[in-house]
């Protein structure tokens, strides 16, 4: 099985010892993305809708770097600082999966990197 590191210059740099994504065979494993704006280097945490849109944008850029899009996503995980934000996050997230959405779990956690409110990871298949 081949293993390739996938990198998008349009998505934020990893903030630790990990890759944006790893392709293993026909599977793409994308690390959790937060609302870090690549051009400015700033976090966007002013409201959960804007934050979630930027997370999804970052995921999209990594998918594109692998030659994929959201239709290739088969599994995702959403980590939320506050489950009360779930309806708004779910609405934004759902707008990227109009048909045949992937399997998913959503988990409330006590803290996320850089104290963001949402982080999303996913697995895609070619």
Protein model, in words:
By secondary structure, the chain is an alpha+beta fold. It has a single domain (3-125), classed as RutC-like (60s Ribosomal Protein L30, Chain: A). Helices cover 21% and strands 29% of the residues. The chain has a 6-stranded mixed beta sheet, with helices on one face. Helix 1 (48-65) packs parallel to helix 2. It comes from Chryseosolibacter indicus. Belongs to the RutC family. InterPro entries: RidA, RutC-like_sf, YjgF/YER057c/UK114. This is RidA family protein.
| Morphology call | globular
Give the % helix.
10-25%
Overall structural domain count:
1
Number of strands: 6
Major sheet: size, sense and barrel closure?
6 strands, mixed
Beta-strand level of the residues, as a percent range? 25-35%
Q: Tell me what the CATH architecture is.
A: 2-Layer Sandwich
Query: Total helix count?
Result: 2
Q: Give the strand order of the largest sheet, numbering strands 1, 2, ... along the chain.
A: 1-2-3-6-4-5
From the N-terminal CA to the C-terminal CA, the straight-line distance is: 14 Å
Radius of gyration: 14 Å
Q: Which regions are unreliable across 5 or more consecutive residues at pLDDT < 50?
A: none
Key attributes of the depicted protein:
29% strand; 2 helices; RidA family protein; six-stranded mixed β-sheet; RidA; globular; 126 residues; RutC-like_sf; alpha+beta; single chain; YjgF/YER057c/UK114; 60s Ribosomal Protein L30, Chain: A
